[in-house]
């Protein structure tokens, strides 16, 4: 991912979380997942853009782990992996999960995206399987996406669209790794 794009994606994490996914309760016992197995089993659907609630709960848990906060006990086995790219956070899972017909034991949190990390060069196969097209930005040609949903939010000067996309890409700091996953972002709505 180009550093400028990564910085923009990181800024989008804060803006892209809709109010419906911000906790509105003081009840610390209310948790999105009852067990560690449930969190891992729903991760595949979150990565495939099929489970929005799991996407936001897992992304928040990974952000908490990265910031040094005590994670919900269901995420106790998820460990941050030291790496050199300051724009992404990499995590090892307690066991492999299936997504897109493949397995992974690592995920990456990048801005408003949650990505499975796949060793090897299967980017072209995933792009074809998921019916993705080359993203217009950045013009480097290493990011492929497919917009799954666009929902208009806000009015007037605050008119935005929440966009849900599948993405496959590579990243120079992780050679011989293909990233595949889901992202939610707020974008300006054309007037």
Can you walk through the features of this model?
- With 191 residues, the protein is α+β, with helices and mostly antiparallel strands.
- 25% of the residues lie in helices and 34% in strands.
- It is built from four helices and eight strands, in the order αααββββαββββ.
- The two termini are 30 Å apart.
SSE layout:
Elements (H helix, E strand, L loop, with lengths): L2 H14 L19 H12 L4 H15 L12 E3 L7 E11 L2 E9 L2 E7 L3 H7 L3 E2 L8 E11 L6 E10 L7 E12 L3
Antiparallel strand pairs: 1-2, 2-3, 3-4, 4-8, 5-6, 6-7, 7-8
- Fraction of residues in H or I helices: 25-40%
Secondary structural class: alpha+beta
Number of strands: 8
Q: Extract low-pLDDT stretches.
A: 1-28
Order of helices and strands: HHHEEEEHEEEE
What does the radius of gyration come to? 16 Å
Biggest sheet, spatial arrangement of strands: 1-2-3-4-8-7-6-5
Mean pLDDT: 84
Q: Note the beta-strand portion.
A: 25-35%
Largest sheet: 8 strands, antiparallel
Shape designation: globular
Number of helices: 4
- The N- and C-terminal alpha carbons lie at a distance of 30 Å
């Amino acid at each position: 991912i180009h550093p400028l794009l990564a910085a923009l994606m990181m800024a989008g994490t804060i803006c892209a979380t809709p109010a419906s996914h911000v906790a509105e309760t003081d009840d610390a016992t209310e948790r999105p997942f009852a067990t560690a197995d449930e969190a891992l089993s729903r991760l595949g659907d979150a990565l495939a853009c099929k489970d929005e609630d799991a996407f936001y709960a897992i992304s928040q848990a990974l952000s908490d782990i990265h910031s040094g906060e005590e994670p919900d006990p269901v995420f106790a086995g998820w460990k941050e992996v030291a790496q050199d790219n300051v724009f992404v956070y990499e995590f090892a899972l307690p066991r492999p999960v299936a997504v897109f017909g493949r397995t992974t034991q690592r995920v990456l949190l990048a801005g408003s995206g949650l990505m499975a990390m796949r060793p090897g060069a299967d980017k072209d196969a995933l792009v074809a399987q998921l019916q993705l097209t080359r993203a217009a930005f950045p013009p480097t040609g290493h990011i492929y996406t497919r917009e799954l949903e666009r929902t208009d939010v806000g009015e007037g000067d605050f008119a935005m669209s929440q966009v849900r996309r599948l993405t496959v890409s590579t990243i120079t700091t992780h050679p011989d790794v293909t990233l595949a996953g889901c992202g939610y972002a707020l974008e300006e709505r054309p007037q």
